[in-house]
Every structure is written in C-alpha cells, then in structure tokens.
Fold each of these.
Amino acid sequence: MSVAQATQPQPRSANPRHRRPARYLVAAVLGALLFLALVGSSSLSYLSLDRIPSRGLLLGLPAVALVAGATWIGIRAVERDSAERRRHQLWAVTLLALAILLWLLLLDVFLFTEEAGPGATALSTLACLPTTAAGLWVVRRLDREQKEPWRLVLVATLWGAVVATSLVLWAEEIFQAWAVNALVPGHGLEASNAFSAGVVEELAKGSALLLLYLVMRDEFNDVVDGIVYGAAVGLGFNFMETIGYMTYLDSLFGPYAAGFQWYHRQVLDLFFGHASYTALVGAGIGIARQLPGRRRQVIAITSGFLAAIAAHFAWDAWLTFFPLGTGAFTLVQVHLRVLAMNGPFTAVVVVLLLMGRRIEGRSLERQLALEAASGSGAILAEEVAILCSPGRRLRARLAAGPRGYVRLARLQRAQVALALERWQRERRGIDEPLAAEHELRRRVLELRVSPPAAAPTGPARG
Amino acid sequence: MTGWPDEIDPLYRAIRLVGLMALLIFAAGLVEFLSFEPPGQATGTTARITGVYAYDPSTRTTSGAAAERFGRGQPFAAVVDWSSIPSQTTVAARWFDSFGEVVGQVGPATAGSIGSGAVPVALPQGLKENIPGTYLFVVERLSRGQAVEVLARRLVEVERT
C-alpha cells in the first residue's frame, strides 16, 4: 500500500466514500425536479377540487400537524451542537416528508375516488390491503439470500402508491387533452395515449428506483434487489389505481363491477401488470449496479426502462385486439388475455430473476468457501453447504428449537451478509478487507459465542 | 477486479436483448399509429357543427339551446350542417363516450346524401342513463373505409348527478 493510500480514510465498505460521491448530487437534482413536478401537480389538483369535504380533515390535519412538528424540530436543530443538530435535522426532514406524503395521498384520494363516497372508498381500500400486503410478502421473499429491509420495501411501495400516482395524473390529463383535439379517434389515438401512459407512468415509478440506486446503494446490490424494489413500487401503484377504478366503476355500475375490477387487478393481474413493468426497470438498474463502465450501466438502465414502457404500451394499446365475448367463456378469455399479453413480460422478469439468483448463489458459495478457508472462524468449513442453501438454512434453524431459531437466524444472516460483502469487494477489485467486512466478521464471531450456548449453523447434510 | 466478460455478462446481454425487443414493440406501435393516422391527409376541409342539443328519442327531434353539459338522464344529439362539406366527400359522424366506445354514429356516406337529422347518443346496452364523463363528437372524412381526417369535433360533459 502506498503512503498516499495509507493516509486516506479507511473505507467503510465495498462502496468506499472518501468524499461525498457525485451520485448524491445527481440524486439531489433528480429529487428537486420531482419535488417541483409534485408541487405543480398538487397545485393543479387543489385548484381542480371545487371543495374539500370534511373527510379531507382525516388526512389534512395530520399533514398540517406534521409540518408544524417539522418546523419546531427544525428550529430547535439550529440551537443544538453539531451531533444533536444532525439528529434533529433528520427528524425534521422525515416529518416534512411524511406531511408531503399525506397531503399527496389526500389529493390522490379525492382525484381517484371523486364522488364515490367514503364508504365505497374505505371498502375498496380494505379490499386491496390484504392482497397488496400478500404481494409484498411474496416479492420480498424473492431474494432468498439477503432479504431487503422492510422499511425500504415499504418506502418503495409508498412511492408507487402516492408519489408516482400524483406525478402521472396531470401529465396524462394534459397529453390526452391535446391528443383528443389533434388525432383521429380510433387505434391511432389509442396507441398514442398508450405510449404516453407507458412513458409517464414508468418514468414516475422508475424514478423511485433511480433514487434508491443513487442514495441507498448498500441496500441495492444486484438484479434480484432491483426486481424486488421494482415490483414493490409497482404493487403500490397498482394499489392506488385499483382503488380509483373500483370506486369509479362502483359509482357507475354498482358493486359487482367494482368486485370484478378488484379480482382483475388485485388477484389476476397482481404480479403481471405494474409489478412486472416496474420490476423490468429495477432489473435494468440492478444489472447496472454490478457492471463496470458508465456506458454499459447507461445501456442496462435504458434497456430496463424501454422494456417497462414497451410492456405497458403493449397492454394499453393492443388490449382492443383481444375483444371479450359474452357468456361464461368471457371469464376464461379474461385470464387468457392477461396471460397472452402480460405473461411474456412477466416471464422475462422471472428469467432475469433466476439468472440473478444463480449468479448470487454461486458467488455466495465461492465467498463462503474462501472465508472458511481463511480460518477467521466466522464461517466453518462444515457450514458452507448449509449456508449456500436457503432450505438447509431453514432446516438447521428448525432443528435448533424455538429458542435457538432466532439466534441461529441472526447468525446465518450475518454470515451471508459477510459473504455478500466479500463479493461486492471482489467485484470492485479491492484486495484488502474493508472496515464493513471486519465489522461483519466481528459481529458473526460475537453471535457465535453469545449465550445461550454456542450452536453451530447446523449439521451439513447431503 | 473481476475481468470482462465476467459473471454479469449473461445478464447484461439479456437486458440488452430485452431493450431491443422493446424497440421492436415501439416500431410496431409506430406502424400502427401511422396506418390509422396517415400523414399527408389534411385537405383543409372543415365541417360546421351547429351545436349539441337535448334530444327526444321518441320524436327524434332536438330542443332548447345548444349546451356543453348534460345530466346523465338527459338524451342529447349533435346537429351538423352537412352542406358545409363538399357533397361528394365520404364522411361519418361518431360519438365516443368516456371509455372511448362508439355510442352513436351516422354514415359513412357522402356528405350530400346525409339528411339533416341529428346524430344522437345511444344508451349503452343494459343502462338506463348515459355514463358520466367527457363525450367526444367527431365528423370524419373517410378514405378506403377508414377515417383519415377530422373535419370537426366537439366535447360534451355528462355530469355525474
């Protein structure tokens, strides 16, 4: 190691931060642009609402209270010493972000549900909550080696439900108002509207993933992570859109139409529609995360966005080429249509996911073996085969009994995290172990000896 | 550093292929758009829509003053001054509801052969009232059986209440 290298600050992880990286600046610019777009969208929404009914207070008052709280803490932060100030500033920003989210949600609820009434809106929301929650549970489990933290998965979902829907509302309205006055009604107009919806909605949803990629890079490691976050954003968007369609159709045709809409969007199309489209964006960003070279990264991210827009466009534009008949066969046709039109894109997501998991699994095995061979004691040779397989890990935890289960789960998570950190370091061409790796190794050793009596990761079975 | 090509290479190739497939889909969309919105079809001809009026389906007559907003239960119809279009021009007039469905139509026929009757909005099957939302009325010029140019258009709002 050279003198210059030795005097540099010790890098914390496989993504060393010697100084504030340029990507934070990109994230700040992107965040500012999105914020301005949201302000414009909210202003238009507010002006378009003739009146705020009393139920608006349900979300409006907490939003006001949160803004007041953020201001108070923000002012207090000025008076504090630097360590305390940072904590207060973080709280103030968090509260402000929550206030903005609530306000956007308020406007969304009014715009999406219009005059359906609070009863229909509440019922639709209640109907969509369990299905969306189940979808998120499944999506998070797609990453078998290292599940994404719930807080980030939920942030992604909230972005899809509240921020992305707010961003697209007026962009689509304005485009459609132009198109309907400029184009011949029919397939040409439908194609142009579909293209606009694809571009606007996928950009709005994908911007969440771009921000995560830029800001939370330690939690955005590969294609699998990208697919998980992307699908979460898509599920959030689908949640809000379903409520909008359900309440609209309920006001026109009654509860049966709303119920069918629920089944179509929350059961049949739950993983096929928005979840798949945004997962394609996430896949592109996740692949770029591990690629060397800016050009390849840009190509991967662009390809993901193009795929998502194309998938969305194809569904919206060519739906009319699969007309539904009448009678009992219609139900079969509805299912076939989703399978034929969205199925291929979901299949692409599944293929990318399986490829990503295979690469991740192989790398995990290699790094576990290397760590075991290093003799650090964090991973023992007989543990490698168990840690490589999620099934064997589970069996080992179950064999440890109820008390040992939680402790062993912690140990296994730390061991896998250590191996994945090693993988990230290897891919970035850094030979020396980094501080984060030392910390993870120390944590594993701590967990291994912590009471109750040390239990092995589990016996290796064939 | 891991060399290139490396373990991520297959994924990179796969996402690039997916991106190329997306471009093919866009190309298909563009072909579709151009075939239904062919360029170079503007003739400069315009049609005059006299107005949209309340309509009585039993007598097939319009009444009252022209309006841009109607209640759900109020039938309505557009009145076109067909003499404002060259008589040999093949035209059609269509109403689209807020779902984009055709809910009323006259033609296709030559402008000279269409009578002076109004173009009403028909109730969707199984419904007793119109669906609320924005309705679009267009007078179109047809070529080889396909609408290629809008000669006039009018937007009407059907209110929820």
Note: The helical segments of chain B are 9-36.
Amino acid sequence: MAAVRIPPTLRAEVGGARELEVTGSTVAEVIDDLVTRFPALATQLLHDGELAPFVNVYVGGEDVRMRDGLDTEVGAGDHLILLPAMAGGC
Amino acid sequence: MAVSALPASLLDLVGSTPLIELSRLSPSPAVRLYAKLEGQNPSGSIKDRVAQAMLDAAEAAGELAPGRRLLEPTSGNTGIALALQARLRGYELTCVVPSNVTAERRRLLRLYGAEIVESPGEEGSNGAVRAALQLAEGDASYFMPFQYANEANPRAHYEGTGAEIAAALDRVDVLVAGLGTGGTLMGAGERIREAFPEVVIAAAEPLPGDEVMGLRSLADGYVPPILDVSRLDRKLLVTNAEAVAGLRLLLEREGVLGGVSSGAVVHAALRLAEELEEGVVVCVLADGGWKYLSADFWDAGDVDAAMEKTVWW
C-alpha cells in the first residue's frame, strides 16, 4: 500500500484525514482509488481526464508532471503528496 | 583616471554576481558543483535584477513616471529590492506582505522607505497577491510591476543570470534554482539551454506547512502567468527541514551563509548530482542567510514544526 498526504483544502472531502492509504501501481490508479472512495474529489483532482491545473502530485518528492504524468509508477511503500499550486517567490 | 568606470550608484552594481565552485560539497570529483551567489546583489538578493528590469521596462514604456506610486505583493526580497530602486529613482512604494514574515524583512522594508500593508499570514503569498490586486483596482495612482506576470522578470534572468552562467562555464548539465515566480528558472533556463541544449532545468519547490496554504479550495490556487512548467525538466519538493539541513551543510563545508531557498537548492542539487557519473551542476543561491537570523528554526528540535507557520520563499 502507498500513502497519500491530503492537503488541508481537501480534508473535508475525505472525512478530515491528513493521510490515506491507497491502492494502485500508477498515479492514475491511485487517483481512481481515491475518487471511488471519495467521489467529491473527482472534480477537484481531474479535469477532462488530466490532472486539474491547480493540483500538483508528487511521488518520491518529485512532481509527476515532469515524469510520466498520470502514468507515473507508484511503488508499494511510496509516499504521494497532493498539493495545491501556490504562488511563491518572496 | 578610471573615474568614468566607477559605479554612479548602487543601481550600477546589480548583477555580475560571483560564481564559485563548491568542491567541498560535491559528491565526487567528476561532478563539479557551482553556486551563483545572488546574495551579493546591492539589496542582498537576486530580486535586485528583477526589480531593476521591471522598473526600467515600465519607465521606457511610459507606464511609470513621477507622481505614480509603486505597489507589489511580496514576502520580502522583491519588496526590499523595489524599495532600493524606488528610493534612488524617487518613487513611493507600498508592499503587501504576509503578516508572518520575519522581523528583519519588515524592518528592512521600512528602513528602505517602503510602506507596509499586511495580508493574513495564513493565506501565504496567494493572499498577498489577492490583496495587492484589490488595492491596485481601487486606486489608479498605483503602478504594480507584479513580478508574477511581468515578462521583464524572466528577461532579467535571460539577459543577466543565465547569460553570466553560460559565459562563465563551458559545460552545464544541470541548473537548479528555487521555484517562486518562476522567473529565474524560465529566463536563466532558456538562456542556458541555448548554450547547452542537453541541460536539465530543475526546480526546488517548497513544501509549505499546512497552516500557510490558506486556500479555501484548489480552485484558489495560483500558477504565475510567467511560469510554464512544461519547460522544467525536474521539479523536486523540498521540506523546510531539508532546506535548513542544506543551508547548514553549505555553511559548514563552504562557508556560504545562504537563505532558506538556497538551502533547498543545495539539497536538490546534491540529490541530482548523485544521479550523475560526471558533469556540471549549477545552483542559483537567491539570497544570504542574514534575513533569517531572528527565525526560531535554528535551535529547534523539530525544524519542520518550527517553520510551518511562515512562508519562507
């Protein structure tokens, strides 16, 4: 099982959990698992079958958009992080 | 008789920062690690380049002239850089600053002559952006350079930061910089890719504490208009604790006192350097550590917990 860290903005949709155990061997399968269990997440995470523009997903600390996107592999012990896109830059 | 070559003011000293080798930090002799010391700019950060380029462009376009007031959302460095520029060019400056930035930043902004308007700390940089956009809408005398959407920001790094690195080295395999507005990565990245087409452009991105995410929903998220993430090759999330560990390593091994984002860049650079058998990795270190000395993470047992309520870069 992999684990997903849920950002504060999405915790209401998952019953308040900060982290969830998930199944799936790719990011797409993990999101599928999340959306099946918490249907309210669907519109937040996906947009026309792609990752929604304001959502970043990290596997092993690396943004999956720079890897294989939704096809990025997820290992059994991997830690995924969901984050909203935020401004930075001092 | 070199009088004409002397700088006329601090504005002439923006850019042309030192590039040093970090041989004591490199994981192997075949991987050469370099650092561009942007803290050596006149107001202490890479944002001197951005502030200068944005105001030059606005004055040249006739958008900025005496009588107008400058306004910018900033958690520190851009505000300090704009304040230096504003003072020497004769403009007033108002900065919208998240309420939880370090005391040095606030004090520096005031000393340089900026007026401070606070935005809720828990809303982070996004909150400062929102508040500044509202202020600008309500008062036509404000001119907002707005680094997040101003093409002069990446252009400053294309013509300055990136060009300087490309001229100084005969090979660059990886460029690592902190991700904020995206200006450095877009501008310097493009310039270095022109010189070294195979270069990997890598972003070190902060993992914000829960309490500063401050978004009601993901739809409140913000991707700066100047940032095109498809032009990044790698994007690595760095925790506050990892950034501070990088900062300490940089200081212990090389004697360089960097800021929090510099620590994050070093952390990401070392991770990427481990993947190379040989090559050249260049780190852009955006500021020095001076503005962080009052922060309480230095002696904290749990660094992440000590840092989670503040926006660090």
Note: Chain B touches chain A through 48 residues (CB under 8 Å).
